[in-house]
Structure to design on (274 residues):
């Protein structure tokens, strides 16, 4: 087979068909017993097929013609082709228009596959995020129980006792702001009743002939207290109120005295002599 290829190469060189440098390189490889690339074999077959009629006509008379002197050889740098096996069919590297298309199609396919993979990953991430959000929204939040704040009237005597502050009458008159809203324990005698105002006077310190220190008490809906009832219990300090009286000369107009006493609100009072 090597001699047949060499004859074809010589005939093509003689007829000046094909790439002379490439044919010279193929001829050198054949003569030196070197490996012939698959692309070179396909190239020779194509040239022989295209010019087979002329090669056959000139083959019979080539022995009578002197063999032309080989032209100076220029080193041809073939593309490295690792194919060692000689095949009878296939595409040659001369058909260069095929490879760019194949490469382009390969690139397009790879690009399309990459886009599909990337889109799939994005969809998976979005689905995972949505599921995580749904899970987060369905988690029941722990119920926080806010303890109910009792009013003073709902507290027991022991609870009121804990909240009660120490006090004295003159200090309460002097430092009103320090006692506002505070609970104190009182013990006194009812000296006057104002039923139209739901209020009474509670004498804290009784003098020799009259009450020296008293306070106004807003009663807690109880209207059964009478003068001289002895009461004790817990009250809430509200403010200082001016004392006064209704002047008979001004048709009962109330006239203030300029003196102030504590005004408290009953929380829980107990009568000891009722």
């Amino acid at each position: 087979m090597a001699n047949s290829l060499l004859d074809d190469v010589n005939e093509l060189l003689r007829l000046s068909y094909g790439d002379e440098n490439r044919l010279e390189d193929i001829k050198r490889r054949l003569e030196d017993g070197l490996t012939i690339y698959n692309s070179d074999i396909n190239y020779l077959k194509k040239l022989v097929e295209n010019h087979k009629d002329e090669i056959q006509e000139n083959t019979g008379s080539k022995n009578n013609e002197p063999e032309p002197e080989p032209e100076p050889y220029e080193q041809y740098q073939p593309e490295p082709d690792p194919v060692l096996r000689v095949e009878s069919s296939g595409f040659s590297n001369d058909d260069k228009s095929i490879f760019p298309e194949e490469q382009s199609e390969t690139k397009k396919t790879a690009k399309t596959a990459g886009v599909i993979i990337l889109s799939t990953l994005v969809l998976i991430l979005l689905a995972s995020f949505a599921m995580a959000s749904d899970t987060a929204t369905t988690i029941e939040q722990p119920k926080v129980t806010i303890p109910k704040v009792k009013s003073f009237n709902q507290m027991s005597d022991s609870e009121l006792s804990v909240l009660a502050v120490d006090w004295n009458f003159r200090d309460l008159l002097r430092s009103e702001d320090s006692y506002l809203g505070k609970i104190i324990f009182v013990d006194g005698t009812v000296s006057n009743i104002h039923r139209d105002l739901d209020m009474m006077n509670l004498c804290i310190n009784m003098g020799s002939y009259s009450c020296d220190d008293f306070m106004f008490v807003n009663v807690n809906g109880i209207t059964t207290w009478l003068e001289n009832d002895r009461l004790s219990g817990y009250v809430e300090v509200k403010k200082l109120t001016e004392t006064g009286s209704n002047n008979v000369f001004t048709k009962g107009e109330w006239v203030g005295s300029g003196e102030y006493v504590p005004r408290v609100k009953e929380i829980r009072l107990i009568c000891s002599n009722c």
In short: The chain is about 40% helix and 25% strand. The chain has two domains: 2-97, 154-271.
